[in-house]
């Protein structure tokens, strides 16, 4: 792959960042000497060394530029931190606690960058097909906790006022609220959403503790008792790869709206997944042909996308009574009940919803999205 030199502005920015990191390292080093905890200093040292190598090479590979990878990484990291999903441990390092209560450090930018570069042929092809949105998915965290964070964010975004037609009722305050329907085009006007502040997210009771007790399985091969999937506990024990299995680095399509039947676009030789197919249909299709290297999304990936999109645009995803569709999360399965997880915004009930459907159900309002995992 051809090499591209850093621009003068980029080089100056990197040098300034290195200066800041060096100052942070000096503080962390003194702290390590005082407390005997070198983790933060070591993390900073590794990042400094990696950035120096990158600067010396003067290299930004084309896909990194196309994805605006550095800025996306920093943005997603800040969103996770601001939402209270990302913790800062006593050592100064940041990460999550898994369902096993073990700490899992967040992958560094260099680790994410290396992952993208190692699989550049795959990511280049999928980027040409519209997969340009980076998500840092805290897969190992308790699903109940991730749902709660989304609840809190919806409440934080919403503001209401007395209904001008009936002061005994309340409606979204168009001047203050930051909770809007998903737009079709960026230039579309904001459409305030009402919110049930008593229950901002409705959750089917089968989700409660399901990832921790193993009643929710991941990466199924089929939706049956012979699903061939794994529990989250099993996945966290895996050692393959350089990034902890507690984190999933994925690319998703930049457009958050799942198109309805016949409305999908052909992008880079791949027709977008459309609504009005069954979970069985999607499971059969995703990962094959034009959908090669793709996986069905999990509830954790859906929630991470919902949190990220809400924080960057003030919009709720999968507004099926608006511009979007309900999303089957075909990367997971409830074997005991025979249901496939889903997620959406439910206008009539004024809230987000996480439920489950039979794998044979076909509905014009329901579709699926996929993700390209690192």
Account of the protein in words:
With 374 residues, this protein is α+β, with helices and mostly antiparallel strands. Helices cover 35% and strands 20% of the residues. The protein has helices at residues 8-35, 39-57, 62-67, 69-82, 109-118, 120-128, 143-157, 210-213, 232-236, 279-285, 299-313; strands at 87-88, 94-97, 103-105, 131-137, 160-163, 166-172, 180-181, 201-203, 217-218, 248-253, 266-267, 270-271, 295-296, 315-316, 326-328, 332-333, 340-346, 351-357, 366-368, 370-373. The strands form seven sheets. Strands 8-18-17-15-19 form a five-stranded mixed beta sheet, with helices on one face. It has a four-stranded antiparallel beta sheet with strand order 4-10-20-13. The longest helix has 28 residues, at 8-35. The radius of gyration is 22 Å and the shape is globular. The model has no long low-confidence stretch (mean pLDDT 94).
């Amino acid at each position: 792959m051809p090499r591209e030199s850093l621009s003068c502005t980029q080089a100056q920015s990197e040098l300034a960042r290195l200066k800041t990191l060096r100052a942070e390292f000096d503080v962390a080093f003194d702290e390590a000497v005082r407390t005997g905890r070198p983790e933060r200093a070591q993390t900073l040292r590794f990042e400094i060394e990696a950035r120096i190598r990158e600067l010396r090479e003067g290299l930004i590979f084309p896909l990194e530029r196309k994805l605006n990878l550095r800025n996306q990484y920093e943005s997603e990291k800040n969103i996770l931190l601001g939402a209270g999903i990302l913790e800062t441990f006593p050592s100064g390092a940041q990460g999550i606690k898994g369902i096993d209560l073990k700490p899992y450090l967040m992958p560094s930018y260099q680790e994410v960058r290396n992952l993208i570069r190692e699989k550049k042929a795959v990511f280049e092809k999928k980027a040409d097909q519209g997969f340009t949105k980076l998500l840092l998915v805290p897969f190992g965290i308790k699903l109940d906790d991730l749902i709660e964070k989304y609840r809190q964010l919806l409440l934080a975004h919403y503001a209401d006022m007395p209904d001008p037609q009936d002061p005994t009722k309340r409606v979204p305050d168009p001047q203050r609220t930051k909770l809007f329907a998903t737009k079709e085009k960026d230039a579309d006007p904001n459409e305030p959403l009402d919110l049930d502040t008593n229950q901002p997210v409705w959750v089917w009771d089968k989700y409660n503790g399901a990832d921790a007790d193993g009643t929710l399985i991941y990466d199924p091969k089929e939706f049956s008792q012979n699903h061939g999937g794994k529990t989250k506990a099993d996945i966290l024990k895996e050692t393959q790869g350089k990034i902890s299995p507690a984190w999933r680095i994925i690319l998703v399509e930049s457009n958050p709206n799942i198109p309805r039947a016949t409305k999908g676009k052909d992008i880079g030789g791949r027709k977008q997944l459309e609504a009005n197919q069954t979970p069985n249909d999607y499971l059969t299709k995703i990962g094959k042909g034009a959908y090669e290297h793709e996986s069905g999304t999990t509830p954790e990936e859906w929630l991470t996308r919902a949190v990220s999109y809400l924080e960057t645009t003030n919009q709720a995803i999968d507004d099926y009574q608006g511009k979007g569709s309900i999303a089957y999360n075909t990367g997971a399965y409830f074997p005991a009940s025979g249901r496939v997880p889903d997620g959406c915004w439910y206008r009539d009930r004024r809230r987000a919803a996480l439920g489950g459907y039979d794998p044979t159900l076909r509905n014009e309002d329901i579709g699926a999205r996929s993700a390209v995992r690192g």
